[in-house]
Design brief:
The protein has helices spanning 18-30, 44-55, 73-80, 96-107, 122-130, 142-157, 169-176, 187-192, and strands at residues 89-90, 182-186, 202-206, 212-221, 224-232, 242-250, 257-261. By secondary structure, the protein is of the alpha+beta class. It folds into two domains: 18-84, Muramoyl-pentapeptide Carboxypeptidase, domain 1 (Orthogonal Bundle); 89-261, endopeptidase domain like (from Nostoc punctiforme) (endopeptidase fold (from Nostoc punctiforme)). Helix 5 (122-130) crosses helix 6 (142-157). This is Peptidoglycan-binding domain 1 protein.
């Protein structure tokens, strides 16, 4: 195990972890992103050097780094190597309900719209109906899929379903604020402390002023997410054609936030 490991929180301007900041500064100089004063202080000069590094780098999946001047787990891994981020891999849900929800969702992978692009199909209609809508309306159904998974899992465990009954992503985000067992995690909060995101957490994206996309996080590997999503495709569209497992989303890409139900 390398001696130098990711400290568990994002290093950025104002960070007091002098050891981590010093290591970052030294590494930036070595990889040609200086000049940077190696003084353990994360100021504008260091942030600019980090942005320079991010602008020319990709992660282990070949995805360009988010250029934000902050050293989260993904940028850290590219700077120092994947093995230096050992503690942020999470593959097990933190509660029986979340574990069951992920099992239910995984069982739906491969479900497709009939015909493709119609927001209809035998299984898709069931997802939509569960939120009280008539599938004949050809509704976007990513939030319906999430609610259906929660409802089925909660029913099998004979426990209350904490998930808001809504087909709207932005409505779900708002309604979750009134659920006592829900914790809303803002996007910036998750980027600064990625250890908050665990399997079973929901991710929510805003795609316009009135629409969004959401799904279930199955696994967390540093900043990288494995997700199960309805109404999507291999490219991650919010108007896709089925239920897919995806491995290309990152914590930094989630622009609305996350919800964890306990």
């Amino acid at each position: 195990m390398p001696k130098l490991v990711f400290p568990g929180t994002t290093i950025m301007a104002g960070s007091t972890n002098k050891e981590a900041v010093t290591a970052i500064q030294k590494r930036l100089v070595i990889v040609g992103c200086g000049p940077v004063d190696v003084d353990g202080k994360y100021g504008a000069e260091t942030a600019g050097a980090v942005e320079h590094f991010q602008a020319r780098s990709v992660d282990s999946n070949g995805t360009p780094l988010l250029i934000d001047g902050k050293v989260g787990p993904t940028t850290w891994a590219v700077l120092f190597g994947d093995r230096t981020v050992p503690t942020l891999t999470k593959t097990k849900a933190v509660s029986p309900l979340l574990k069951k929800i992920l099992n239910v969702a995984a069982g739906e992978i491969g479900t497709m719209e009939v015909p493709p692009g119609s927001n209809r199909g035998p299984e898709v209609d069931l997802y939509i109906e569960k939120t009280g809508l008539d599938p004949a309306g050809h509704f976007a159904w990513c939030a319906c899929f999430v609610y259906w998974c929660f409802d089925k899992a909660a029913g099998s465990l004979d426990t209350p379903n904490p998930c808001p009954k809504t087909a709207g992503v932005l409505a779900h985000w708002a309604d979750a604020n009134h659920v006592s067992s829900a914790r809303r995690i803002l996007s910036e909060e998750a980027q600064n402390e990625p250890s908050l995101i665990v399997p079973g957490t929901l991710f929510l994206l805003r795609t316009s002023g009135t629409a969004g996309h959401m799904g279930l996080i199955e696994e967390v590997h540093g900043n990288q997410l494995t997700t199960i999503e309805g109404n999507t495709n291999d490219g991650g569209s919010r108007e896709g054609i089925g239920v897919f497992r995806r491995t290309t989303r990152t914590i930094g890409q989630i622009n609305l936030g996350f919800v964890l139900y306990s």
